[in-house]
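Last lecture ended with a question: if I hand you only a sequence, what can you say about the shape of the protein? Today we answer it with a concrete record. The protein is Amidophosphoribosyltransferase. Below, first the input exactly as provided, then the predicted structure, then a couple of comments.
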Amino acid sequence: MEISDKIHEECAVFGVSTLKEEAAGITYNGLLTLQHRGQEGAGIAVVSKGKILYHKNLGLVSEVFSGNVLQNRLKGHIAVGHTRYSTTGSNTKENVGPFITEYLTGRIATAHNGNITNALELRTQLKSYGVDFNSSSDSEVVSALIAYHITREQDTLKGVIKAGGYLKGAFSLIIAGSENKLIAVRDPKGYRPLCIGKNSDGIAVASESCALDTCGFDYIRDVRPGEVIIIENGKITYEEVVLKNEDETGGLCIFEYIYFARHDSVIDGLSVYEARVNMGKALAREYPVEADIVCGVPDSGLEAAIGYSIESNIPLVPAFVKNRYIGRSFIYPTQDMRDYAVRLKLNPLKANIEGKRIVLVDDSIVRGTTSEKIVRSLKSAGAKEVHMRISSPPFRYTCHYGTDIDSPDNLIANKMSIDEICKQIGADSLGYISIEGLKEACKKCRLSFCTGCFTGHKCKVSVTKQDLEEV
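The predicted structure:
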């Protein structure tokens, strides 16, 4: 059990092909920037003189890697890295990426963000061909499938394309090959983000543009849905949309803008910060209320709170002091102590909230447990009223494309009406952004969205030829 009852995204990927023998260090910095996408494990693999060397383990990026490992054991011009949050497979070292797969003429290291819905079927088929597996992760299945088809096709590009055609679900992939190629692939539905950056020394690929920024790469563009990109010697040598979205369903997961991505990233043409501010503005229009101050729940509700304040002309003030050094609540041995962990992490700022009517903005309510404790803590600190505003619609449906909500029984919006949820969490009123308001807030995105967790339906992808040319 964690302090937060937020949904979580599976992982982050980063890869680089550079003229300097510093690929591992660059990848380390990229993974540090992407740590918010996964905190259970981390790994880096490098291509060195036709071999693939790697190091991975459970823990945060800074815990897994030492200066000695990066400088002495992982030297190379090509590297691929991975941070993990497990949705498929248990939290063990064996399930941490990148996954290293050997085949007749070489090796590949594969980092995967997403979730493969036909992984069990593919694993069974590959086992019948004599392929062995060391983990329970779907990412190892992806790596093995790619290696198998590279062997069958006797060509790396053809093998990657062939394997991609068998994968169902969400996958943003970065693959490092022993033949000194770095390959990026995004699934044809575009569920998970992937972008490309460039500097004078080479090319980098990352889950989010913020990692490109911090590593000194200029953002070029996003990898298109269904596109395969090959990078050799720090240059792009192949880029083409080759994986087809046969039924035209899917789309970028809308939760990238609501919660998953870091707010200084740009995804498919839209600033995450701008999208979240727009969500707050939409909330203020849809659910106005007389109040004295607007507050955001750190950190995920802060940008939407800015938008609500701008649109409503209600002052924005901080309501909490956040302790950034508190870990996960399972380290506390009793439930009472875990309950106190919420307040230990977010302590109400009494001077700002005492006697005030508060609009409290957060990104989502999943199980409702944390929201209830936060509202209670504000009222205990003297808040006169707490009006909860949520920058996502009610989360009612499970997701199988890379988030960790696998049962509708875990979703409070499946059990209660909005009025009942409001009463349960102790708020004076509760308002969720509408799906229309959410889409309007994100209208600058070049892709359509998957909003299945709110509607139960997948959205059709509508990427025009002009959109692709502009990318």
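Comments.
1. The radius of gyration is 22 Å.
2. Residues 358 and 386 are 5 Å apart (CA to CA).
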